[in-house]
Design a protein that fits this description.
This protein has 146 residues and is mainly α. The protein has a domain of 64 residues: Helicase, Ruva Protein, domain 3 (Orthogonal Bundle). Helix content is 58%, strand content 0%. Helix 2 crosses helix 3.
Length: 146
């Protein structure tokens, strides 16, 4: 009986491991051109106003960027090559997500640092103005004038 439970547990564990690793390990499938183009169009901001993704913006400048992406994909360029070409042409401002290098690192770390400094300031303030360790009785001076 114990041997049967042991074998059943081993079988269930094996099946679950095969299912887990089979579903999590994906083959390196290169996405088709329309999918890759849509992904790239969502990574760039329209260079006319820098407010909306190229994929959804309706301006001549965004259409021009979409056409360039399509041409670069037809030429066989990778997405990282296309990004570097468009960044060199339009500047880093065309990227929806700023890079995590140099001054742009402040855009990623700055808000968290400001929140942490705020917590420290509030904590120090609360610590300094906490009730004293003396007695909590209120002393009312008595006048002798009654």
């Amino acid at each position: 009986m114990k041997k049967q439970k042991y074998l059943i547990n081993i079988a269930l564990l094996s099946v679950s491991a095969i299912m887990f690793f089979g579903f999590t390990q994906q083959e390196a499938v290169k996405p088709d051109k329309p999918t890759l183009q849509k992904q790239l169009e969502n990574e760039f901001v329209a260079p006319c106003c820098f407010r909306e993704a190229v994929a959804y913006h309706r301006s001549g400048a965004s259409l021009e960027v979409r056409d360039k992406i399509s041409v670069y994909l037809d030429e066989g360029k990778t997405s990282s090559e296309i990004k570097s070409i468009l960044v060199s042409e339009y500047g880093e401002r065309i990227l929806i997500k700023p890079t995590t290098e140099g001054f742009n690192l402040l855009a990623w770390i700055g808000p968290f640092a400001i929140i942490a400094i705020g917590f420290v300031v509030v904590g120090v303030w609360l610590y300094r103005f906490r009730p004293g360790s003396g007695s909590s009785e209120v002393v009312i001076p008595q006048d002798d004038m009654y």
